[in-house]
């Protein structure tokens, strides 16, 4: 996959139900809101949907809620020709969830998400950073016996994209993400006592803090996941590494120097 991927679009008058179907069917965490002429009006993320359901969707049918009610109207639009490091710098400086690629006429022609940059890091960089250099330390962790609703509430109120789940001995047993929550979105409106262990991803992929960051990036790119728990030798979570962290690493001066040296070496033969 190149830097720019095919755009996933919805219309402002589409319903929440239709948007859920699009995201689940195409397995994408974000979509562009487009007008009839193919020009961008905004963006929608999984977090936007879950936040709306939590605060406003309790008594409404998903087929009555329009995209215009929960979409983000502020977004970053860029032209074709952007390279990976330029994209990483925009992501990091603007703190946006995606980039909308438009033609000279202003029409949508593609999109870039952070997962695309993780693949680039994994394919080009080796031995430059350790996982511990960019991971988030002391991540939020809850028990597998917690209710789905309480984890949903925690994710929305703390603006989390995922939560690590521990067993009774404090070892990582699973992870739950915004993607998982979308699959049960209609049932999040009631305070169900269903345990999160019935929805989690069991035995998640994990990395150690002294591993090469490229290994974590490759894991995320190949498995199409956005985060990986970081554990110690006892199986306990000491951090979490995400595609946002990979993007941050790409903005470092050490990456520019590394890629420049590779370019100089390979072009000299």
UniProtKB/TrEMBL annotation:
Entry annotated with the keyword Transport: no
CBS domain boundaries: 3-60, 71-131, 135-193, 200-257
PROSITE patterns named in the record: CBS
Gene3D superfamilies xref list: CBS-domain
One Pfam family recorded for the sequence: CBS
Superkingdom in the source lineage: Archaea
Keywords in alphabetical order: CBS domain
Residues annotated as transmembrane: none
Name of protein: CBS domain-containing protein
Species in which this protein is naturally found: Sulfuracidifex metallicus DSM 6482 = JCM 9184
Organism placement in taxonomy: Archaea, Thermoproteota, Thermoprotei, Sulfolobales, Sulfolobaceae
């Amino acid at each position: 996959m190149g830097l720019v991927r095919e755009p996933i679009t919805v219309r402002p008058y589409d319903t929440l139900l239709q948007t859920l179907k699009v995201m689940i069917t195409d397995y994408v965490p974000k979509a562009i809101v487009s007008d009839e002429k193919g020009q961008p009006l905004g963006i929608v993320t999984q977090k936007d949907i879950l936040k709306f359901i939590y605060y406003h969707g309790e008594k409404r049918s998903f087929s009555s809620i329009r995209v215009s009610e929960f979409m983000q109207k502020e977004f970053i639009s860029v032209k074709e020709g952007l390279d990976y490091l330029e994209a990483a710098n925009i992501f990091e400086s603007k703190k946006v969830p995606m980039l909308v690629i438009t033609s000279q006429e202003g029409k949508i022609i593609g999109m870039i998400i952070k997962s695309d940059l993780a693949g680039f890091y994994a394919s080009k960089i080796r031995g430059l950073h350790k996982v511990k250099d960019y991971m988030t330390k002391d991540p939020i962790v809850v028990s597998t016996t917690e209710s789905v609703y309480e984890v949903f509430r925690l994710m929305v109120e703390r603006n989390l994209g995922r939560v690590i789940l521990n067993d009774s001995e404090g070892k990582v047993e699973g992870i739950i993400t915004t993607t998982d929550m979308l699959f049960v979105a209609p049932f999040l409106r009631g305070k169900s006592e269903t345990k999160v262990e019935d929805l989690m991803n069991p035995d998640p992929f994990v990395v150690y803090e002294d591993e090469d960051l490229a290994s974590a990036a490759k894991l995320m790119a190949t498995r199409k996941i956005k985060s990986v728990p970081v554990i110690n030798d006892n199986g306990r979570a000491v951090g979490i590494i995400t595609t946002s962290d990979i993007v941050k690493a790409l903005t470092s001066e050490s990456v520019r120097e590394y890629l420049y040296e590779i370019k100089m070496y390979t072009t000299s033969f």
